Amino acid sequence: MQKVLVIGAGNVGAHIINHGITKHIGAEFFLLDLNEELEAAQILDLKDTLLFSHHAQISGIQFGDERLQEMDVIIITAGANQGPGETRCDLLQKNNSILQSIAAKLGKLKSEAIVMLVTNPVDILTKSAYQIFDLPQSQIFGTGTLLDSARLRWRLSEIMDINVNHVHGYVLGEHGDSEFVAWSSVRPETTLNEAEKLKAEEDVRQAAYTIIAGKGATYFGIGAATIKLLNAVINDTKEMLPVSAPYPYLADRELQNTPLGIPAVIGKNGIERVPERKLSDAELEKLTLSAEKLNTLFTSCPIK
Length: 304
Prior knowledge:
Radius of gyration: 19 Å
Strand order of the largest sheet: 3-2-1-4-5-6
Number of domains: 2
CATH topology of the largest domain: L-2-Hydroxyisocaproate Dehydrogenase, Chain A, domain 2
Number of strands: 11
Strand content: 15-25%
Mean pLDDT: 95
Low-confidence stretches: none
Distance between the termini: 37 Å
Shape: globular
Number of helices: 8
Helix content: 40-55%
Structural class: alpha/beta
Largest sheet: 6 strands, parallel
Oligomer: single chain
Order of helices and strands: EHEHEEHEHEHEEHHEEEH
CATH architecture of the largest domain: Alpha-Beta Complex
């Protein structure tokens, strides 16, 4: 079985593993957290679900263990939350330091290893990870706008009264405030007017804020989205999923290496390829503006 390391035993990390077990992902999961008491408790709770899975395994692990060099996929959920009065630059600096520490403690990874970023700001941390991990860029990607696209599709399925699995469409750009719905990608085509489209787009953009205000954190959706990506890697499904990846078809060469939510073919090698999208002029402009925002934040924050 593939060895999958999940770093961070909080709600997100635990729900990723729980969803992987219940979805019968054939993997040996390892959970790592500096809080060993929390890690141990989560593992005990997760082991209680193994009877209801086909063949998953779960155990704890700590930095320094030689088995870390055997991991096929590393999923990073560990990170700090944005505190009162802190800017996104402050959050980026904190979580970039955590990412650097994780990489140093992991040591040398398998040359074929895949690194998946879940920690926010996910797009910029994905770019940081290119510099931190000694792996090809195609083997490093973030969860991007997969969760945002899921939020869009269930809303459209309710509006259109169609099974959610038969509604298609993408949210593109930053996993954040500059994301947008690529209405040209939505199938079946909707009869929504512009005001209704704007409302649907704003509902998707505000979803995380609403959830966090009500219960403190989001974890069901991102757990499921991460396992969707993990399944694509483990089973080489070659699915088109919107992850944090560079879009090489932007006109500005400086922006072409800025990861942002864009559909990519995901398989055993990570990002197999990023096909060019047929976007409207307005959508391409929004994607460019989102890339500019991310690039500006990355270059203006004094990351060390």
